[in-house]
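>> received
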Amino acid sequence: MGNPCHFALFGLQPDFRVDLAQLAARYRELAKAVHPDRFADASEREQRLALEQSAQLNDAYQTLKSAPRRALYLLALRGRELPLEVTVQDPDFLLQQMRWREELEDLQDSADLDGVEVFKRRLKSAQTDLDERFAACWDDASQREEAERLVRRMQFLDKLAHEVRALEERLDD
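>> returned
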């Protein structure tokens, strides 16, 4: 079967803007077709193939549904693999990160659930802004460095969003 592009698996053109509801629906449809249970009575080779296709489909879906992972994948398709750990040569954003971290620590210390909700909305807004900025420049070779900088920021905000959800769950208990 080879290794087709994640976008091609879902019948999509490589683009940052993806209809997530449509992606999820297509994923469910494709997952049913290659689900290993459907191949219980098949030959060992067909079972192994179904398992591989199912794993590949799952990986493609996880990549495309996450904005930072989708962005990294698009840059990789253009021949630009970004190292996973990158020093952020972005002093303004470094300062912003420190402020966000301090604010999150304060919210944790004060167990302020309402404050966490407000923080989460601001974070979501910052993520949407980065997504829009990346969508506008990722495919323009002259803006490659900007696209890479935006991806690094997206990765940080994604990680921060996970921490916010974890804090929310702890405060909810």
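>> The chain has a mean pLDDT of 90.
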